[in-house]
Amino acid sequence: MGHSFSLKAILATALLFAGAGAIRSQEAPTYESSVVPVLRQTCAQCHNENLASGGVNLKSLERRDSFSSEREQWETVLRKLKTGEMPPPAVQKPAGLPSMVRAIEAELDRLDRNTKPDPGRVTARRLNRTEYRNTIRDLLGVEFQATQEFPTDDSGEGFDNLADVLTISPLLAEKYLAAAERISARALGLIKLPKPISASFAADVGGGQLAATNGTARRMGTSFIERVHRIEYDGDYVIQAGLSGHRGPEGKPVTMGFWMDGTLLYSEEVATTPPKSVYFSPYEVKEFKVFLSEGLHTFRLGFMNDEVGASMPRAKAFDSAANKYPHYIGFLGPEVPSAPPASRSQILICDPASGRACVQRIVSNLARRAWRRPAKPGEVASLIKLVDRTQQEGMDAPHGIQTALTAILVSPDFLFRIERDAEPRNATATHRISDIELASRLSYFLWSSMPDDELLSLAETSRLSNATVLDAQITRMLADPRASAMAENFAGQWLETRNLDSVKPDPERFPEWNTELKEAMRTETRMFFDSILRENRPIAEFLTARYTFLNESLARFYGIDDVKGSEFRRVELSKAERGGLLSQASVLTVSSYPTRTSVVLRGRYVLENILGSPPPPPPANVPPLDEETTGVAQSLRQQMEQHRANPACAACHSKMDPLGFALENYDAIGKWRTMDGKFAIDTSGSLPDGTRFNGPADLRQALATRLPQFAEALTRKMLVYALGRGLESYDRRSVNSILSNWEKKDYRFQALVFEIAHSLPFQSRRGEP
Amino acid sequence: MIITRKALPRRTFLRGMGVAVGLPFMEAMLPAMPQASRAGAKPPVRLMFLYVPNGIDMENWNPSYSGPLTELPRILKPLEPFRNDVLMLSNLTHNWARVLLDGPGDHGRCSANYLTGAHVQKTDRSIHVDGTMSMDQLIASRIGTETRLASLELGMEDPRQSGNCDSGYSCAYTNNLAWKSPTQPMPPLLDPRLVFERLFGAAGDLTPAEREQQRRIRTSILDYVRESTNALSRELGSTDRRKLDEYLTAIRSIETQLEKAAKDQTPVPEGMAKPAGSPADFSDHFKLLTDMVTVAFQADLTRVATFLITREGTSRPYREIGISDGHHPLTHHGGKRDQLAKVTQINEYHLSNFASWVGRLSTIREGSGRLLDNLMLVYGAGLSDGNRHLHDDLPTVIVGRGGGSLQTGRRVIFRRETPFSNLHLSLMDRMGVQVESFGDSSGRLSGLDTV
Amino acid sequence: MQARGATLAPGILFDSDMGRNIDAALALSMLYGLGRGRVIGVAVNSSSLEAASFCDVLARFYGSGGGLPFGLAEDGPKLGDAAMLSVPLALRDSAGQPVFRTTIRSAIDTADPPVLFRNALLTQQEKQAIAVLAGPATNLAHLLALNGGRDIVAAKVQLLVMAAGAFDGTQDPRIQADTASARKVLAEWPSPIVVVGTEAARAVPYSDQTIESDLSTVPNHPVVAAYRAFRGDKQSAGTSGVPVQGVLAALFASNSNAEYLKLSRPGQIEVTGDGRTTFKESPAGTHRYLVIDPAEKERISDAFIKMSAVRPAAGGRGARN
Fold first, then answer.
1. A69 — contact with chain C (CB < 8 Å)?
2. Inter-chain contact B418–C109, Cβ cutoff 8 Å?
3. Arithmetic mean of pLDDT, B342-371
4. Domain total in chain B
5. Is the pLDDT of residue C315 over 50?
6. Running DSSP on this structure, what letter comes out for residue B275?
7. Do the beta carbons of residue A737 and residue A754 sit within 8 Å?
């Protein structure tokens, strides 16, 4: 009775205030009218208490209050419906589907409207190894190899910058202290060098007067040799370059080059004609002095663009009477560098011996930059105490500064990115982060490094949060070389290309695989991503671009001619074989096993990284493929079909495998093929929603039609990376608003960066429950 | 952290440049090494866990008999010469590593659960192992102050750099064995050079005076850090504070190390060279690391170590023995003989590396006996059958006599479902750390010390 | 991932004095008859290996083997000569092969009951499990004493059905065998408890006919073999039948809302010094005991028959192997 009365009351008010609205609301799909029926008639066929297909039972959603109690489940349902993944092709699509989607969205929005937006909260974030290295570089101009010195950072959600996963162990703290001491000493040029010693390496092939004392150098083709070697001290080193043989009287001069980690440090023109007097095998030693920085480096010696050497037949290549070639690298050092390190003068902006005032200036300047915020007088005072303390030990002023700098570098304000809450223990106390905090969020998002002076000064004068200023800064930062960190760190993890170092393709099966090719693959994807970002291209190009970035060796690997030389350049793609990320060797290699391709791994890769709907993990004891017979007794496809006959596997594999099959034209290191063993490759398949395709080119197009889905996947990944935390259900609103704004900007890549930088979770935070 | 070098500065520097990669130092250094046991005193017992992933081919692991060890099955064969120092344990189970209500992810679970005996929360955006800390860290927290390093964590494989690790379990679970708290793993050191620096100090050849000076300055820097961190903590919420507390704890452990270093100064063993880095070859890498553990134990630099040989779920191929397929894919052999054979080979290879270390250890004397008499090297895996992801009858052997507290040369078979955590309790007893219960323990293991 | 919000059938723990009389055998076979996966953990309170072996035989007979091992008390009583176990286990077929196979060779093949029960319970969702006790409470008392055991019981167990006690002033040997444990369980067990007393069992005996006629329709039924050995040359219990506390408990555990199974009002059950069970009514009490309504005896007996006559489920290996 009372019930029906209250119902009358509602109707009455509806008529009073809403008028025609009441009638409209009858037309609009409601939960009762459009959702429940489909749940009961369609979904419940599989997602019921007994079957619970995919571990999902939707019974609990048949009550309206489940929207608040089971929000995440609803999010999933909505995603599956919108992506057309559910209901599966086998099941007939109910007519009410579109109105069901609208009704669910309406319910979720209603829920949102009645709840205050939640920006979430990021825990104090420790700098990860990359951020530490970059920050030291930008702060002091010191190249510190954090990845060599510190234990690996753990990662979560596929990224190694998640606050809650980054911890500090006693070991790491030890390393921080040791690193801080070393770095500050290096920056101030206070390291006392030992007596110079020599280390030398000769390539196995060829010979000469110089014998290697420390092992062999690796040959890279005929014109280059390479050696990984640890330099223990910053300093000048005399390099001895041993060149063996000659190219006869007509030999043209060549340009000899010496590289460290890919950067050319020295070059000189050398003759290839026979030396005046030849007693035995002709041999020439070039000596030159270069500055080498501390750490483990890859050194390379060779002749640039040496057509002659490259075209030498293997037989004559190392015949010292027929060819001149690099053979030996010697290091003699360290010697005290001609000039003190630039960082020294940058730190000692005045003479610390001149007294308090100067010391104070130096210290507060260092602290401000290192801590990415102005240093309080009290803080500076206690740092100065350390300077005094050191001088009481009888050491000079610069050493005093070194102690202070060390302390600055092990202080939590440097090691962590800490954001303050007015009310740390009040979860509802939402507030904008300060301009200073915003500056660091921006710089670590786009540069994986500290804010530069322009950014920091704008923040200190509270101008950064102004939308126009902010946009101007983002534009400037994206144009800055440091923005390459996005390709290195975001793309490297989103696209999993960092795993190029951990996947180890079988050299037997893939003789072409070597370090150079691996690095070339990595470079291609990095430059591809970088260009789409910097040129603000539409993200559809990730999937469909008809261009990429190649050097000679990678181009040859792709079967593309007329790309000469080791440097990379943009190349237009004419053949359908390649185009977009999913045709890039890096991506195809990290999604394969060492010995073979895996349609499952590649399928998962596409679902996870491109479509953003990762499949549920496999059950234990899955019947694996028969490695040996693949391509021999049975084609991979035949085996997978069997695999999928098993209903337990079918549910997910029917989603993953077809995507993988479309990429079967690429072998386990991404080389094009049309046969798998003795079987022709069948690359036909269909998307979760039933869209059919045949081969990589089709797949590209098919995926391009799923642009909004790709955009959402990319948005979620980048938001996790930018915030340093996993996304919660309350972040859906931010994701949706980012997406709708971004769509209006035709999904141009930079627009996403701007949207994220302006989003609620990026600009605000709250206390803890 | 600071240790004097006996060797000539220039020579060690030369070596420092990366000349010597191997460490053929054992015999050479013995005289130079101070014994952990001060005159007369009973040498301390030292504990180490060596963990191999993806299970073991149990067919070739379990002998057909129990009791005295005679002929050993194929995988354990390499240990046969030392079988009188081997105690083999069967039927120990880690129930929390099972599916229970958490679904797939056995690799993620079993590795984080191995030393904690606790439930591992299934999450990829944060990390949490229920319970307090792993048993090695519990030991370290009790007796760690007696040695320069409370504990030593080693590993040989670079963790996955991106992508997810196991079915919704954070990579932290498979990258680490030791846990200092439910949310703080202790990352393993992979690079022998860094291990060397941790044991013998990175600082080159300082005069005693310079070293003292360096220590005093370090101390004042650490004081400064503690004060500023404390001040900062007060302004923050609890999760932020937890992060800073982690740091404070770490700072304190450095301070203890400094004090210890001030008192005793272990010389770098004569002829022991600072390694240049991680060798690519499995055996070389394994030898470098274990030889340094030998020194650490001999010189009593630490009494508890964990060694995550490779990670759960690793797809590392073993070219060293002609196997190009990844380890993990191989273990899902579904009963295919040829694949299983390769798994067996990998298991054997791991064992043979371990056994050759044991061989080197067996020659080292300590006090009136052998170093081995005072060690407990627990070698094992968090899965038995890697194909079916089984967590019972976890393959486990202990090498060394735990200061006479272990009756070795036998295989002991416990009743089914006996918690692996019971072994943890029994080992902690032998390390002088008594606790009532640990993880899901149901009591102590009986029959380890009596036939 | 667990099926969200799925309400799964309760998993059942069964602890008994298997071998002392036919009751436990009938009860366990009834529970296995419910289907694969329903029985999650089985232990015996004696230290006689045959008792565990016979549980294994039943599990295999109903195709429910291969899960967790069986619990065998560490230092429980010995059964002496229990024909109902030894005879069936000794049966050989024409080929000389055991008729009823078991892989339990020694105590090593069994588990410590409290650990077994704890591990089994951890596979259950909150309050999903039901524990059935048809014997002394020793193992359950140990479970409560186990590290973390009590909390896990509190979290996972919705009900304990205890076939031990008597509410007609008499004494039940199952209580007297270990009064301390019975007292501990009744005092500390964190879930509601329903007790099936001896008087209830006597009210609805299990007729020999049912066993002889209905069960034996399945060839080589281990329970039939056990029953025949159990009865031995004692002249047939005739029409009176066998009192089966455990079977009633199993029946209640498997359909607790059957209206023909009546319960006392809530209250508190305690164990007196001389091992009697007393009931004190109290609205807040979490204990009840089964009350047999004479009018319902028929339906209860029918239920016995229905449940006992279940043939080995699909995948059940029957007696062949």
1. no
2. no
3. 96
4. 1
5. no
6. -
7. no
Q: What is the pLDDT of residue C31?
A: 94
List all chains that touch chain B, counting a touch as 3 or more CB pairs closer than 8 Å: A, C
Interface touch C2/A73, C-beta < 8 Å: no
- Average pLDDT for B411-428: 97
d(CA A154, CA A721): 14
In a domain, B318, yes or no: yes
Please answer yes or no on whether B324 and A167 come within 8 Å at the CB atom: no
pTM for the structure as a whole: 0.83
How far is the C-alpha of B195 from the C-alpha of B190, rounded, in Å? Answer: 8
Residue C195 placed within a domain: yes
**What is the pLDDT, as a whole number, of residue B159?**
73
Angle at A207 between CA A201 and CA A211, to 5 degrees: 45
Distance from CA of A70 to the nearest CA of C (A): 9
Cα A559 from Cα A561, distance rounded (Å): 6
A668 vs A506: CA distance, rounded Å: 9
pLDDT above 90 (res A759)? yes
Question: Which residue in C18, C26, C244 sits closest to C135, CA to CA?
Answer: C18
The range of the structural domain enclosing residue B281 comes to 13-430
Please report all neighbours of C, defined by 3+ CB atom pairs within 8 A: A, B
Interface contact flag, C6 A73, Cβ < 8 Å: no
Pick the residue of A123, A127, A167, A388 with the most B CBs within 10 A to test the interface with B by mutation: A167
Contacts of A152 in chain B (CB under 8 A): 158-159, 175, 187, 190
**CATH number, domain with residue C205:** 3.90.245.10
Q: Burial code of C20-57, b = ≥16 C-beta within 10 A, e = fewer?
A: bbbbbbbbbbbbbbbbbebbbbbbbbbbbbbbbbbbbb
In a domain, B193, yes or no: yes
Q: How far apart are the first and last CA of chain B?
A: 43
User: Which chain A residues contact residue B316 at CB under 8 A?
Assistant: 504
The residue among C49, C56, C119 with the most chain B CBs within 10 A of its CB, best to mutate, is C119
Indicate the SS3 state at residue A466.
coil
Residues of C in contact with A54 (CB under 8 A): 1
Which domain covers residue C17, as residue numbers? Answer: 11-308
pLDDT tier, A90 (very low <50, low <70, confident <90, very high otherwise): confident
Identify whether C289 is part of a domain.
yes
pLDDT tens figures, A343-371? 999 999 999 999 999 999 999 999 999 99
Mutation site for B-interface testing, chosen from A298, A627, A669, A721 by largest number of B Cβ within 10 Å: A627
Instruction: Show which residues on chain C lie within 8 Å of chain B, measured between beta carbons.
Output: 1-2, 68-69, 107-112, 114-116, 118-119, 122-123, 125, 146-148
pLDDT single digits (tens) A363-420: 999 999 999 999 999 999 999 999 999 999 999 999 999 999 999 999 999 999 999 9
Which residues between 500 and 529 in chain A have a beta carbon less than 8 angstroms from any beta carbon of chain B? 501-504, 506-509
**Which of A451-460, A701-710, C190-199 is the least confident region?**
A701-710
CATH number assigned to the domain comprising residue B259 = 3.40.720.10
Per-residue pLDDT reduced to its tens digit, C173-213: 999 999 999 999 999 999 999 999 999 999 999 887 777 77
Rounded to a whole number of angstroms, the distance from the CA of C8 to the nearest CA of chain A is 8
The beta-carbon neighbor of A55 closest among C1, C7, C8 is C1
Domain count, chain C: 1
Residue C205 lies in a domain: yes
DSSP for B11-73 reads HHHHHHTT---S-TTHHHHGGGSPPSS-TTSPPPPEEEEEEESS---GGGTS-S--EE--SPP
CA distances from B346 to A34, A234, B330 (A): 58, 42, 10
**Is B436 within a domain?**
no
Mean pLDDT value of segment A281-308: 90
* Partner-chain residue, chosen from A126, A171, A624, that has the shortest CB–CB distance to B334: A624
